Please model this.
Amino acid sequence: MDELIHKAAILQEALPYIQRFHGCVFVVKYGGHAMIDEALRVSFARHVCLLRYVGIQVVVVHGGGPQINQTLDQMGIHSSFVAGHRVTDDKTMDVVEMVLCGKLNSEIVSLITRHGGRAVGLSGKDDQLFIGKKKAPIKTKDESGQEVSVDLGRVGEIAEVRPTLIRDLLDRGYIPVIAPVARTAEGEALNVNADTAAGRLAAALGAAKFVLMTDVDGVKDKSGALLSSLGAREAEALIESGVIGGGMIPKVRCALGAVGGGVEKVHVLDGRRLHALLLEIFTDHGIGTEIRESDD
Model:
């Protein structure tokens, strides 16, 4: 009986959040270990379906870096990185599209559909959702320590988001699942960062929440303790002081860009935790870091 009462209390705690966010748009960036572990994959699909059934309009933007690496290795195609960017020649871009737009996208759509959702697979090329431009060459140092300029090839940044198709799909009850591939004005495919693509789309849709699923707990302070909530100015100060560093910097910058573009709140959470999405959204304390525009 105690277990049943506990479950009822959890549902009661979720009620005001369900009421508040009914009809709102959530954009979820899905990536990391949550895309690999089978139990986490099933859990994620069920959570997305649950969100849709309680009236929240969900958009999923997925990554796939490890899966791209594996496929490139299997095909004997060398891949290198410069300043965190994958150097993407034409052969590599073909593999990127094959993995992201083909295999992974269809797998996620099938999984959500299997659990009752009406999912539709897309890429940023469809209906010119993401109009991109090639990134400028990156300055780095070679083995001798000399500064060199490296052309990243078909690596892009998003110049414009055209979300009309996504809005139409949401209004009709679908769950868009989007691969982060953009196209130039001339029609050339570009490899774009999934976090950035999701954040830009969240801003364009006026999303209530943008959820970044990662392989870390969230943003931490200088003592290593998890910060449950963080204002934009405080986040900038933590970056400036070096408390936020390494791979967390681009994620926090992405979050700041989203809230600066009109997203109400961004949530950085550990997708390796079972039920992470629901625990962050429907409980009073959450499990990750909430980033907002205001420091109040």
